Amino acid sequence: FGGFGLTANPAVNFNIGNFGVSTTSTPPFNFGNTLASAGAFGGFGTTTTTAAAPFSFSAPANTGTSGLFGATQNKGFGFGTSFGTGTGTGLGSGLGTGLGFGGFGTQQQTTLGSSLFSQPAQTPAQSNQLINTASALSAPTLLGDERDAILAKWNQLQAFWGTGKGYFNNNIAPVEFTQENPFCRFKAVGYCLIPNNKDEDGLVVLVFNRKEADIRSQQQQLVESLHKILGGNQTLTVNVEGVKTLPDDQTEVIIYVVERSPNGTSRRVPASTLHAHFEQANIKSSLQQLGVSFSMARTELSPAQAKQLLQNPPAGVDPIIWEQAKVDNPDPDKLIPVPMVGFKELLRRLKAQDQMTKQHQTRLDIISEDISELQKNQTTTMAKIAQYKRKLMALSHRTLQVLIKQEIQRKSGYAIQADEEQLRVQLDTIQCELNAPTQFKGRLNELMSQIRMQNHFGTVQAEERYYIDADLLREIKQHLKQQQEGLSHLISIIKDDLEDIKLIEHGLNESIPIRGGLFS
């Protein structure tokens, strides 16, 4: 969970994403940062003693470690924190007076009867901090003239930006503006996936400042080094669950440890126990030598814990925006709202999104290549299946021919038996039914004739399909019209000539008898 903040009041910030705890008087800290002042407490599972006892998952001993909410036990919170059973020594001096409880496991005492993130009474230092902030933003008295109004606007601008110092009085130290202050404008709310792994799965995340290729090439040496850090116990086995690339040349390695008992049974070491061991000062220094920059236990949230996380908005986040973010949650069962404070957090999430997009694209490319290869294999397999079918058919025919010849040789010289005669009659009956005009053969011939006619008509229709341009069609009509007129004129001339010929013949027939009488 990146940037996952929790708050008890506006002046206290529980930043689970960075695994630090900060108040207005002390800076936030990370895993393993021990505080030397009395009444302060270390990180989640950090030690305040010099050396830890030999590591043993089966019988953990109290080595003086004090987590955020009491002594570390084998009962963990979803983010690798040690919210185990305690004796009420967690927040007694850090956040108020009289608030002692063991945590989510078994609560020993609750003097105020309140929940984990209830509003404690403000200390005088916190009240003075709020008064100083209000003075710096509204009514500074540093210069005593009209320039104080300009200074107030400048302090407001710094508060909006979330950086700088607000001077307001010559006798009081300036107010330090951070991005966690409620006036910072560069804030947003995003969503993170809730882990679904149980504490019994024993998954612990180690973030290395090394590239994935280097981690994978030296994975075996890494496992051996982690085993040595765990004391080299032969009953413990370190296993790598997964390796994933992170932005800025970092790599996330998920591990779990299997513990084998003398009777032959084995179990996974709980994630909270393993993470608490890794957060010891001497163990953490050894991990840092291996390049580990961050570690956390990957465990799920219980419904009660998730409800506690969502009840109060993080420090500096408007409660209205936080409530709206919970309403706009696209999948409340799988996602949880987290604040994004400042551009660095936004850049980190952007890099993580780009990295995940690249991984998805790489996976899609691999899947696409696999699909292409499977399609090629399918095509080859289908061709082989068709070839084998043809081969099987040919072998079946050959086998049938061999059986026929063998049967003929075996029955040679024997009379036809009754079952053979019955079989011959059945075959003749089937042959007659097939050859009958109204039966299958006739219908088959009729269907074949219709298919041939359809193919012929389809061919003819396909050949007759043409298109003539309108201008060309007009020219053809004009030409045909002229041809028709010429033929009509020629026919009229021929008719006139025939009339003349008939007249000539008639004249010749009348003149021949007259001439005969004259010469007789």
Automatic annotation (TrEMBL):
Residues 313-451 form the Nucleoporin Nup54 alpha-helical domain. It holds the Pfam family Nup54_C. GO terms for molecular function: structural constituent of nuclear pore. GO terms for cellular component: nuclear membrane; nuclear pore central transport channel. InterPro entries: Nup54/Nup57/Nup44, Nup54_alpha-helical_dom, Nup54_C. One of its GO terms (biological process) is nuclear pore organization. Residues 466-504 form the Nup54 C-terminal interacting domain. Keywords: Glycoprotein, Membrane, mRNA transport, Nuclear pore complex, Nucleus, Protein transport, Repeat, Translocation, Transport. It comes from the Eukaryota. Component of the nuclear pore complex, a complex required for the trafficking across the nuclear membrane. Component of the p62 complex, a complex composed of NUP62, NUP54, and the isoform p58 and isoform p45 of NUP58. Interacts with NUTF2. This is 54 kDa nucleoporin. It comes from Semnornis frantzii. The gene is Nup54.
